[in-house]
Amino acid sequence: MYDIIPLIIILISLAVIIVIVVRKFSVLATLDVANIPAEKEAKFKERIIGTRLKRNVIKWWSKAFRLIGPVLATVVKFFSWLQAKLLQLRSDYQDRPIKADEIKPKIDQLFNEAEDCKKQEDLTAAEKKYIEIIGVDSRNIQAFKELGLLYFEQKNYEEAKQTFEHILKLKQDDEDAYSNLALVARERGDLREAKEDYLKSLNVNKQNAQTYFNLALVYQAMNNNKKAVSSLKEALKIEPNNPRYLDTMLEISIIIKDKALAWDAYKKLAEVNPDNKKLDAFKRKINKF
């Protein structure tokens, strides 16, 4: 099925080009050739129209390819990569049809085997297990998530990104896929993209405190402490006693010299985490305001 996707995209592109050429043809047909001798008129007009058509076809094809080229390349690359992985596994596993009542037990077994492989730090074997699951169930979102996280752990960020993007083709409102794309973007240093992906994740689920906290860290890295504080407040509405959130809120409030916010965060942090070794230092910094 994946082999025909590039062909479909190319055919659609050609159809668009044909429509454009037909529209251009009506303009070309009105060329003024009244002053050309009658015996040369037909050939001259045909040559001019042919030249203009050829030039426009090249122009519009070039423009269309610039627009769809990167998308087409990404799609072809991902599916070619996935197909190659699946073909690679064919020699490693028994090639026989799996009965319907065997699918779930088989997938559960493969997930367990993948976890064992990860515990043994054999990530290559774990990758094969997840890809075998996808071979059994091509829409198994959890297998794609685990595979993407595996690539992320291996610092294969491009493969991780393509895997998480594929999840969104299967399920458009998957908050984890957006959060994981943000994670990849942060590691690549693309804070703007990370911010957008976290916001998309929150648009799916506004009750995820961890996502608000991660977004706050991105804003902090972008030197936008005002929005970082706003995101932290949302995180603390959901998890008011989370020491890490309070610690970060206290640090930022000291940076922006918001004494009221700093004391509020300090008191809450001291209450939920009295053994925090940074409390004395925080207190001295607040008193210097």
From TrEMBL:
Single GO biological process annotation from the record: protein O-linked glycosylation
Pfam families, per database record: TPR_12, TPR_8
Transmembrane segments: 6-22, 64-82
Protein name: Uncharacterized protein
TPR repeat spans: 141-174, 175-208, 209-242
Signal peptide extent: none
InterPro entries: OGT (IPR037919), TPR-like_helical_dom_sf (IPR011990), TPR_rpt (IPR019734)
Record GO terms (molecular function): protein O-acetylglucosaminyltransferase activity
Keywords, ordered alphabetically: Membrane, TPR repeat, Transmembrane, Transmembrane helix
